[in-house]
Design goal:
This protein has 218 residues and is α/β, with parallel strands linked by helices.
Length: 218
């Protein structure tokens, strides 16, 4: 892990509050690893999953407050990473289920593992998304219920979305969940991301961010 700066190449608006930021720099990272980005609005860095878009290093940002608004306003960002363990899927057919803000991460996963990708969104995206997409809660549930013939799933999104997807998929294959939203320092020092699992306390920034869903939920 190291400290570095990232200069913005493109800012692509996906919806009213969701963006992809691409960068001019290239860094080596493993699937689902993340970087911690500094802001002027908080002393705590914010975690963003690494991915690719238009053949460039990229992150997805959903603006939910001053810190995430800062991310899409800056031409240069200062970061630390890559952090966390890279996700290596088990053998067999797999699918990644994610929200619109995770497009760069899932694009990288699809390229590396040739898995299927399904996107759930609250609103119609403002650009053409290169994966099957459903809009709205009802359509998302129907999509989850229709998934069969997979050996594993990886879910990346909000807390609520991840739990709903886990409940719908847990009897259809092995379900992994990326818990990026819990990070604080990203290096295991603050212990803010400690999570109780069936196998004891785990720190998501060094033991994750991806855990098996069954480790966390019944």
């Amino acid at each position: 892990m190291e400290n570095f700066s990232l200069s913005r190449c493109e800012l692509i608006q996906l919806s009213e509050d969701t963006f992809i930021v691409t960068f001019n720099e290239r860094i080596d990272f493993e699937p689902t690893q993340f970087i911690m980005i500094e802001t002027e609005t908080s002393i705590v860095r914010k975690p963003f999953g690494l991915g690719r878009w238009n053949d460039r290093l990229a992150i997805g940002v959903q603006v939910i407050g001053p810190g995430t608004a800062y991310m899409v306003q800056q031409e240069k960002l200062y970061a630390h990473g890559p952090c966390g363990r890279g996700f290596v899927p088990p053998e067999g057919r797999g699918a990644v289920i994610a929200t619109l803000a995770c497009l760069p991460m899932v694009f990288d996963l699809q390229e590396r593992y040739n898995c299927d990708v399904l996107i759930g969104s609250v609103d119609e995206p403002w650009i053409e998304v290169p994966f099957p997409l459903v809009v709205g809660d009802e359509a998302f549930l129907k999509m989850l219920q229709s998934l069969n013939g997979y050996d594993w799933f990886l879910v990346i999104g909000s807390d609520q979305m991840e739990k709903i997807a886990y409940d719908a998929l847990k009897n259809k294959g092995e379900v992994f969940v990326s818990f990026n939203e819990y990070m604080a320092c990203g290096i295991g020092a603050c212990r803010g991301c400690a999570k109780v699992t069936k196998h004891g306390l785990k720190h998501l920034c060094i033991d994750g961010p991806v855990l098996r869903g069954e480790e966390v939920w019944n």
